[in-house]
Amino acid sequence: MEKLIVCVDKRPNALCRLICFPWAGGGTSLLAQWGKLLSNSIEVFCIRYPGRETRLNEPFAKDMTSMVNEITSVLLKELQEKPFAFFGHSFGSYLSFAVALHLKEKYGLEPVHLFVSGAHAPNSEAILPYKTISVADTNDEVFIDYLQTVGGTPSELLHNEDIRKHLLLTFKGDFKVLQTFSTTFYVHSFEKAEMDIPFSCDITCFNGGDEKPYDLQGWQELTSGDTSFYELPGGHFYLLEPSNEIFLAKHITRCIENAGL
Prior knowledge:
Distance between the termini: 25 Å
Largest sheet: 7 strands, mixed
CATH architecture: 3-Layer(aba) Sandwich
Strand order of the largest sheet: 1-3-2-4-5-6-7
Strand content: 5-15%
Radius of gyration: 17 Å
Helix content: 25-40%
CATH class: Alpha Beta
CATH topology: Rossmann fold
Oligomer: single chain
Shape: globular
């Protein structure tokens, strides 16, 4: 479990766990620290994807299904023993949704709250263009330009050849997984009538106000619970701003503690 999960502040007596899913190319350094920001009633787990940090020598995941299966198999016991919530940013939003969908379909388990950030609704056609991009045929400079535009990566790291090369490999590996989400989970899961409203938990959507608008309304179609939307100052990586991070920590804590645990 230590390979997949980072828990900086262990709280065995916590009432609920918040499982955090990083963005494409990202590691656990930021979200794992949220364990120090949230209330003592919440224990924070952060998912470590293959191909980085202590999993550096592992191959990147081949597709979304393999990531969902690994995360579910490792976390199932913990998710069965006490309530849990999910937070995902960008790529992590899609992965957290896919894990939640699998847990509901196969085990009847559901998060008490789903927090998503910087991502289109997974049932939106806005995500379909992602699958048309050929990673192998796209010049690396296109990806570098994208990483520079969205921020989140210090410029000095992108100017270091070795680090830039690894960041590119990691980002492209995760992007290929995202492309399998677009085909597998959008095209197939949402063709099923019984999946029209897969969840009953509340969903909260966050995004940066300076970024291009996301198609968020589709999230309302995925739950019979309440759906709320918050636009915070900044771009795609608005959550790196300390003031926004504090807001997120307080708001997530309040939502979880009001979930009737």
